Amino acid sequence: MKRIGVFTSGGDAPGMNAAIRAVVRTGTAQGLEVVGIRRGYQGMIDGDFIELGPRDVANTLQRGGTVLLTARSKEFMTPEGRAKAAQNLRDAGIGGVVCIGGDGSYRGALKLVEEHHIPIVGAPGTIDNDLYGTDYTIGFDTAVNTALDAIDRIRDTAASHERVFFIEVMGRHAGFIALEVGIAGGAEVIVLPEDPTSAHACAQVIEASASKGKKSSIVVVAEGGYEGGAEALARDVKLCSGIEGRVTVLGHIQRGGSPTAIDRVLASRLGAACVDALLAGASGVAIGEVNDEIRLTPFKEAVEKRKDINRRKYELAKTLAL
Ligand code: ATP
């Protein structure tokens, strides 16, 4: 293998640039040429490739987003689109590819491996932390800290005005962000897709908190924790209990920003491990970090197995909200 490609795909996540940088620099150090594929799978289909040397990735480590840009490609979902992408890779002499993205990106990579036998390994780049085979995904820690900063600010207002706040964080199918910021932000209630609650149950907890002398409450709601999100939960809580709450939807501010040290180090390590894996002949595997060790998991397993939230942490959150 003389030339490898690297691309980012799906939602951007802080730390993706650190992963690209690590691929370029460890690849170069091991005598490889590295090609950046812009705009994810769409760029693979369009042949949007750029040569990347160590200096091209200078000054990117601390930047959020992805310098290679990212996209969601409908064309790649078709066999014709994938055939075009595979041909472009072959024409460019690319003998192996590093895919940095979430589960959809891994599904696409798996198809490219199965249908066109192109060696691909993946690094988990998504703020959601919802990928099996790694304790944490690149971008998760930054997203948690960004959401936490917002919650701390809202807590000031909630406490000063003695109000209830419903704060929606990202997580349509997984509550990792909600659980982490819920604990770190001292939320009275955390609503997760893994354990959906009713408005009535939520109101009961808020009322119990008030009866114990709490003058304000923070309810952290994962997008997928309640049908309609925080907005709907606040409305239903008011309907069933009369409790009035303010709603803040954090939205896309959670996706951007300079990556934390934890994300930079994780991304650097995983990016380098992707190059090592390709050189060792690996393909169709996701590279993760489990208990501080690099772990290879087949794409199929990484996308099909569900990573559960830490139930003990969830119970702890409830105890600490007393
Ligand atoms: P995030 O977790 O941030 O949403 P993701 O990688 O899951 O990231 P998706 O939009 O689901 O983001 O996937 C990225 C791209 O991967 C899609 O736009 C599509 O081109 C490709 N892809 C997703 N699923 C498949 C599939 N089943 N077959 C082929 N390609 C796919």
From TrEMBL:
SUPFAM superfamilies: Phosphofructokinase (SSF53784). The keyword Metal-binding applies. Residues 3-278 form the Phosphofructokinase domain. It catalyses: beta-D-fructose 6-phosphate + ATP = beta-D-fructose 1,6-bisphosphate + ADP + H(+). Its cofactor is Mg(2+). Its EC number is 2.7.1.11. Gene3D superfamilies: 3.40.50.450, Phosphofructokinase domain. Mg(2+) binds at D103. GO terms for molecular function: 6-phosphofructokinase activity; AMP binding; ATP binding; fructose-6-phosphate binding; identical protein binding; metal ion binding; monosaccharide binding. Substrate binds at T126, I127, D128, R163, M170, G171, R172, E223, R246, H252, I253, Q254, R255. One of its GO terms (cellular component) is 6-phosphofructokinase complex. GO terms for biological process: canonical glycolysis; fructose 1,6-bisphosphate metabolic process; fructose 6-phosphate metabolic process. Pathway: Carbohydrate degradation; glycolysis; D-glyceraldehyde 3-phosphate and glycerone phosphate from D-glucose: step 3/4. ATP binds at G11, R72, S73, G102, D103, G104, S105. InterPro entries: ATP_PFK, ATP_PFK_prok-type, PFKA_ATP_prok, Phosphofructokinase_CS, Phosphofructokinase_dom, PKF_sf. Allosterically activated by ADP and other diphosphonucleosides, and allosterically inhibited by phosphoenolpyruvate. It is found in: Cytoplasm. Keywords: Allosteric enzyme, ATP-binding, Cytoplasm, Glycolysis, Kinase, Magnesium, Metal-binding, Nucleotide-binding, Transferase. It is an enzyme of class 2 (transferase). ADP binds at R21, A22, V23, V24, R25, R155, G186, A187, E188, K212, K214, K215, S216. The active site is at D128 (proton acceptor). It comes from the Bacteria. Catalyzes the phosphorylation of D-fructose 6-phosphate to fructose 1,6-bisphosphate by ATP, the first committing step of glycolysis. Belongs to the phosphofructokinase type A (PFKA) family. ATP-dependent PFK group I subfamily. Prokaryotic clade 'B1' sub-subfamily. PANTHER family: ATP-DEPENDENT 6-PHOSPHOFRUCTOKINASE, PHOSPHOFRUCTOKINASE. This is ATP-dependent 6-phosphofructokinase. It comes from Calidithermus terrae. The lineage of its organism: Bacteria, Thermotogati, Deinococcota, Deinococci, Thermales.
